[in-house]
C-alpha cells in the first residue's frame, strides 16, 4: 500500500498514548514518507525538534479536543501555543453544543477568529466535525459555515468515539464538501481497497491511529 503513504497521517490522540508509541509513529512518518503526524498539544514542541524545521511532513495538533465546547478565547490560546511550539497545522473541534443551542451564531464568529489566527502565520487549519452527532441538514450547514470561513480541510469525525468505519458515509462526506476544501477521513478499520476508493474520490488525507502493517 505504499502508493497510499502520501495520503496517510498518523494520529496519536488517545489518552494513554506513550512516548514510545509516538516514536514508532514518527519512524513511520519519516521512513515511509507519510503526509503527517498529529499529536496532543503537550507533545508538539518535542516532535518539532525531532522532525526539524524543514521536514516535509505536516506536524499537526488538536484544539478544543475532543468536544469543542471550550471558550473561543481558550481555543485561541491553544492555537497560539501550538503554532509557537512548531505545529504546521491545527485541527479545531466544532462546538457541537453551540450548534444544538440557539447561540449557534457564535460558531461563525469563532471560525472567523480562529482561522484568521492560523492563516496570519501561514499555517493550515482543519475543522473537525463529529458527524455521528449531526443530522444531514446540520452537517451540510456546518460544512458550508467552515468553507465560507476559509478552512483548509474538514475532518468528518474526531476519532474519539467508538464507531465502525463506513465507506459509504466517508464517500458521501467527500461529496458534500466543496472541491475547494480538503477532506480528512478517519480511516481506522478501512481496508486498503476502501482507502484507494477514498483517494480516487478526492479525499486528501487518511487519518490512522493504528500502526501501518
Automatic annotation (TrEMBL):
Keywords: Cytoplasm, Schiff base
Highest taxon in the source lineage: Bacteria
Signal peptide: none
PANTHER family registered for this protein in UniProt: DEOXYRIBOSE-PHOSPHATE ALDOLASE (PTHR10889:SF1)
Protein name: Deoxyribose-phosphate aldolase
Organism field: Spirosoma soli
Source taxonomy: Bacteria, Pseudomonadati, Bacteroidota, Cytophagia, Cytophagales
